[in-house]
Amino acid sequence: MADLSTDFAGIKSPNPFWLASAPPTDKEYNVRRAFDAGWGGVVWKTLGLDPHVVNVNGPRYGAIWGADRRLLGLNNIELITDRPLETNLREIKQVKRDYPDRAMIVSLMVPCEEWAWKQILPLVEETGADGIELNFGCPHGMSERGMGSAVGQVPEYIEMVTRWCKQNTRMPVIVKLTPNITDIRKPARAARAGGADAVSLINTINSITSVNLDAMAPEPMIDGKGTHGGYCGPAVKPIALNMVAEIARDLETQGMPISGIGGVTTWRDAAEFLALGAGSVQVCTAAMTYGFKIVEEMASGLSEWMDQQGYRSIDEVSGRAVPNVTDWQYLNLNYVTKARIDQDLCIKCGRCYAACEDTSHQAIAMNPGRTFEVIDEECVACNLCVNVCPVEDCITMERLEAGAKDERTGRIVSPEYANWTAHPNNPAAKAAE
Amino acid sequence: MANSQMTPGIVAGRLPATAYSDNFDDLHPPYDGHEAHVAADRCYFCYDAPCVTACPTSIDIPLFIRQIATDMPEAAAKTIFEQNILGGMCARVCPTETLCEEACVREAAEGKPVEIGRLQRHATDTLMARGIHPFERGAPTGKRVAVVGAGPAGLSCAHRLAMKGHDVVLFDARPKAGGLNEFGIASYKTPGGFAQAEVDWLLKIGGITVELGAALGQGLSLDELTGQYDAVFLGIGLAGVNALRAEGEEKENVRDAVDFISELRQASDLSTLPIGRNVVVIGGGMTAVDAAVQAKLLGAENVTMAYRRGRDRMSASEFEQDLAAQKGVRIIHHAQPVAVHGNGAVREVEFEYTTDGPNGLEPTGETFRIPADQVFKAIGQRLEGAPEGITLEGSKIAVTGAGRTILAKVWAGGDCAAGGDDLTVTAVAEGRDAAEDIHTVLMGG
Questions:
Q1: What Gene Ontology cellular-component terms does the record carry (chain A) (predicted)?
Q2: C-alpha closest to that of A340 among A379, A374, A375, A377
């Protein structure tokens, strides 16, 4: 049976599933329930200096739903912990003492001044926590006070604060990155330059989830007004996956442990983050939607999949897909596919036809009897028909063998690999000659 | 009252008083908002959707379902009513399992179609509950049209004509408008007085005068109508019932199923409606099922439906047959009545088994008898009192195009006209299309 235990930047946990710093990890009661349910670790909800912050007293969350009111995206305007520092520290210590095998990471956010970090770090260290996570990510509320994403958006600040932390604690330092930037590699490089042991990402994405059209105000609405909040949940996973991969394959940051965050809801989501370079994953929205029990599905599913694939440890999975993440310019232009419709599976809804005819390349014919067939002369293999087809595997992309004729271009498919860098239409390629 | 299902003869009150409202409640209860959302989300928004093709009124089903999914059931209702002004009734009584829902690609994919009928009801009920009539009359044309028969075809025709600005007089022989919607459909399909509410709502368009108690041969003649009006639409339905042609069918308590259904529909207290302990229904169509199921729901102990051909030939849909079976109706196939026995009143019906031979249905010679306190005949209706000068095709009024009869100013549609299934939705389509044609003729000169 696969070994799910994890050693992440020196922080050990029985499985790679951690609860992210968020409402589920705000206090002892919740965290004990989480550990009892089987979570491998928690990142305690962000601590700040006293006097503690206050939260709004109206709604803190907004949501996007899919079919049957399935929660797809959650947005929040909650701030860091609104309990006294001393209370949190006491609880952290007690929980860590009672669950020594679980990872206990403490998220921190204090002003961008060294004295503040010097003040809080020893207090956290005293709890016996396994590590700290620097919250440079929250895009709402705290950022207006020069913290959270206001720091995470300035690589120099990241490097500076990270260095302060490394100099003032023996605990491993994880830097949590905000996605509200243009190039995620810059803050990741800054974290590494400051001596960070690891990064975690993504924090939430700045967002307005919806507008109340009666009140003409954004949701969640507080007394007729709304503000931007942090977006998370399944909807943000693709954004998070890309950012994790960018850091995993960047020459300056490769090898740095990454804790993957963003819409992890199932074992498969976790496996994908691991494959793109994460060494652990953090979960919040899924737990907030379904409760702590979901970790059972995640752990058993990941274990089952690893057994099926012959992976024995998390390390064997971590980063396994990274070599296959490349730049567009290196994609093989001699890889030619055509859509193929399985007539036995087709239920004749015609969505492929509407999509292709209206919005793509007019490469699907609607024949008598509502039979849909691909016109090879027009098919550019865009994959839209595959994506809109409601029947799994009904439409597939089949590769043309080398030597076959591409009916669209009239060219014979070459067995050679050839990418844009050498393509005759590429001005840069010509200039190089 | 001490009567029970076991009480011999034909008596009322076989069930506890509370059982009637339960038994005759909505067969398909309306969706609540969330249920409608979930059901609507299953629609794939097919291209050139097969369900639209399968709908006799060509309602844009994917569009109205998408409108429900996006929280606009009122807009959905308008989409429906533009094609089918009786979309509320059709949502309740259409055999969707043989029309739109049979064509649904999800029926092909997983044997579970999008529940189009119930979604349609959700939309139409929402708008109608708000008392909104979504159409306005066009500018008056000064033309007058007589519509004879206020059933689905006549109502649909009258409404479309009124929309076009014509003045319509809508005649019906019965004391209420609605035709089969009011008198001829099982109660559990349209409870709560919906048929009359729908008529009232439809008439909000204005420009329609209803004259009840008037029919061809009863105060009206086609000659006079064509003289007084610019056009006449006949939606007179099928008033006659076919005979069994079995010995003794004149005996007491042998009735037309349509009369029983009509009586039941008009009864203010179902516990006072007498029903036999043993009821036999003869026929294999929707009317037979409606009568048999309702007899059972009234408390009859044994209800037998006998049809002379096989199951595959029954015109009642599979859903209807299953409904009958589920309610405890015994269905016997390949049995035709040969005699009704009894001294004055029916006591037994004698059947003979049949088989499908090379030359059609053949009796096998084997007979059996079923006890019967009541017999309901439901072996088809026929046109009665066709006006003179009208050409028939088979036993119905011959029409060409959008309901044009042989007479220049006379159109016909619904069950009385040849062609098309005898369905509410088909009648609505025919009434609507005839109205459009009448309008074209009247305005085109």
A1: cytoplasm
A2: A374
User: What's the CATH code, domain B144-239+383-444?
Assistant: 3.50.50.60
Answer yes or no: same fold for B144-239+383-444 and B241-377.
Answer: yes
Q: Which residues of B touch A372 (CB under 8 A)?
A: none
Pick from A67, A349, A353: CB nearest B44: A349
Helix (H) or strand (E) holding B370: strand B360-371
Q: At what angle do helices A85-98 and A28-37 cross, to 10 degrees?
A: 20
Predicted local distance difference test score (pLDDT) of residue A1: 87
Mean pLDDT score across all residues of chain B: 95
Q: Whole-prediction pTM value?
A: 0.91
Residue among A69, A347, A354 minimizing CB distance to B105: A347
What residue of A is the nearest CA neighbor of B33?
A: A68
Query: Measured between beta carbons, which residues in chain B are less than 8 angstroms from residue A366?
Result: 47-48
| Closest listed residue to residue B199, CA positions, set B164, B259, B149, B247 | B149
Domain that holds residue A91: 6-324
A389 and A274 housed in the same domain: no
Q: What is the ipTM of this complex?
A: 0.86
> What is the Cα–Cα distance from A103 to A95, expressed in whole angstroms?
11
Which of B46, B48, B109 lies at the smallest CB-CB distance from A391? Answer: B109
Domain residue ranges of chain B, discontinuous segments joined by +: 33-129, 144-239+383-444, 241-377
Nearest-Cα distance to chain A for B110, in Å, is: 10
Q: Do B37 and A69 touch (CB under 8 A)?
A: yes
Of the candidates A293, A324, A355, which is a domain's last residue? A324
Q: Over 70: is that where the pLDDT of A316 sits?
A: yes
Record: fold of B241-377: FAD/NAD(P)-binding domain (3.50.50)
Q: Is residue A70 within 8 angstroms of chain B, CB to CB?
A: no
